[in-house]
Amino acid sequence: MGSEGNLMLPVLDFTKEDLKLGTNSWSSTCTSVRQAFEEYGCFIVVYDKASYYELQNGVFSSLKELFDLPTETKQRNIYEGKPLKGYVGQHPKIPLHESMGVDEGTTLEGIQSFAQKMWPNGNDKFCKYLFEYAKLVKELDEIVARMVFESYGVVEHYDKYIGSTSYLLRFLAHKAPEQVEPQLGFVSHTDKSFTTILHQNHVNGLVVETKDGSWIDVDFSSPTSFVVMAGDALMVRIYI
């Protein structure tokens, strides 16, 4: 799979000073978000917050420490009755892929519970960085959701939606393929959620399929670029 032609995802800047609720900039961005979801199912957002670079360095350093743990330790990442929320790896169909998840990942308690499974004495630095990162991404997700609800004229349901939303914080690693190994990091899929927000470190690898069957290689053009994807729950609403 690779890009066809010069297709590119829309890029929206959420760090503009005038992007405030009730402004013209907010209204036009709401429209851009809706159009991007309807046309591509996703878009790139630039979300540059103060001290983000320091946070990002801490997050990726902590995740390297996590993925360097022995496999049997990482396999402790289990949620009873929720097999897709825990450890995934060592699978012959996706030999390059390894991932772990934190249920209730925007809460300090959820992150601390995960850390205690990985490190017997916990890991305060890991918890600090990941909790701050999770709060930032949750904030971004809530902005996107608000824009979607406004754009479709159902903003009165936004607070109820936010109040009923919980988050899975997932970490993914893909090893470099050997010459004889397949290049595919993970199987083509959609997410069951309302939205998914993705962020990458240094190496581009995400490819998305448009509604007409074209494929686009996603370029995370800056460290503050995130990809916001419509999950199945939102796509049902878009195409009703």
From TrEMBL:
Keyword Metal-binding attached: yes
Keyword vocabulary terms for this entry: Iron, Metal-binding
A single GO molecular function term of this UniProt record: metal ion binding
Non-haem dioxygenase N-terminal domain mapped to chain residues: 9-90
The organism's place on the tree of life at top rank: Eukaryota
Every Isopenicillin N synthase-like Fe(2+) 2OG dioxygenase domain range: 173-236
InterPro entries (alphabetical): DIOX_N, IPNS-like_FE2OG_OXY, IPNS-like_sf, Iron_ascorbate_oxido_reductase
Protein name: Gibberellin 20 oxidase
Organism: Trifolium pratense
Lineage of the species this protein comes from: Eukaryota, Viridiplantae, Streptophyta, Embryophyta, Tracheophyta
